Amino acid sequence: MNIENYLNFLMYALIYLVMAVVMKLILNFRSINHYAADQVIADGNLAVGLRRSGAQFGLAIAMVGVMAGASSDSMANDLLITFAYGLLAILFMVLSLTITDRFVLRKINNSEELKKGNVSVGFVEFGTLIMTGIIAYASIQGDDGGAVSSLVYFVAGQISVLVLVMAYERVFSNRLNVVESIHAGNESAGIYLAGKIIAYGLILQSAIVSNGAVQSLQTSAIEFVVAALSGIVILYIFEILIDKVIITGTTVRDIIEKNQIVAAVQLSIAKVGMSMFLGMAIL
To answer: What is the pLDDT along the chain (283 residues), one digit of tens a residue?
Structure first.
């Protein structure tokens, strides 16, 4: 690596650092009526820490999509594009938090719950922010950096997650309410839903990237909807299989009802790993 490459590396690193600081300032402003983020994190509030970690990690994932896209002939132009998409990624992170608060975890004031130290809510926000970063990464990479495409896929991804949550609420409705369990501070419920959302994002990522070369908007939309709906079914089927052959000492229902945190972590990571494989091998 020559000196020019080192300088380029430094410039991109500085852009990410600027974006990370901007993200922190926006989140500080957003939560100022509920808590002082730096103070509560210093005091050990893991719930707020999960929100912040998810936002920063999701931002990094999204910006990697810019780096993986096609470059131009001008270094200055590439840096400008990276900066612009960094700002777009920050917008996605903030909107994702709002959508999670208003629609995914309905009837829950997320910021107040985080202030109280509700780690379960923190896990769900962490999952949705990582999923948002994955969707942003895929949309930018798949369409070589199209801003309009990125926005469309962001909206489609958020709607798909809402459908996912509502579908699984329906599945569990006669046995338990996952969102109510999260509101009650059940950490396993939060880990379970966060893992499911991240896994779903990985499946959607493959659909988005594969659509990057498709010219027809109608065809692209149909393929995305098919992938989104089939992803819900695939996750449900493989969750049953994982429950039977990997998490053999308990069930999904028991994991949530009895707040079995270790089993919830294992189940979630197994689903994420399976989704990584399925995304590459099937969709």
So the answer is: 577 677 777 888 899 999 999 999 999 999 999 999 999 999 999 999 999 999 999 999 998 877 766 566 677 788 888 888 889 999 999 999 999 998 889 889 999 999 999 999 999 999 999 999 998 888 776 445 467 777 888 888 888 888 888 887 777 656 678 888 999 999 999 999 999 999 988 888 877 776 655 455 667 777 778 878 888 888 888 888 887 888 878 888 889 889 999 999 999 999 898 888 877 765 4
Structural domain spans, the chain: 3-281
- Side chain identity at residue 274, one-letter code: M
Q: Report the b/e string of 119-157 with b at 16+ CB within 10 A.
A: bbbbbbbbbbbbbbbbbbbbbbbbbebeeebbebbbebb
Cα gap 36→180, rounded to integer Å: 27
Taking each helix axis as running N to C, give the angle between helix 147-172 and helix 119-142, from 0 to 180 degrees, rounded to the nearest 10: 140
Instruction: Yes or no: say if 124 and 190 are a contact pair by the CB < 8 Å rule.
Output: yes
**Could you tell me if 273 and 196 are in contact, meaning their C-beta atoms sit under 8 angstroms apart?**
no
**Region of 217 on the Ramachandran plot (φ > 0 left; ψ -120 to 50 alpha; else beta):** alpha
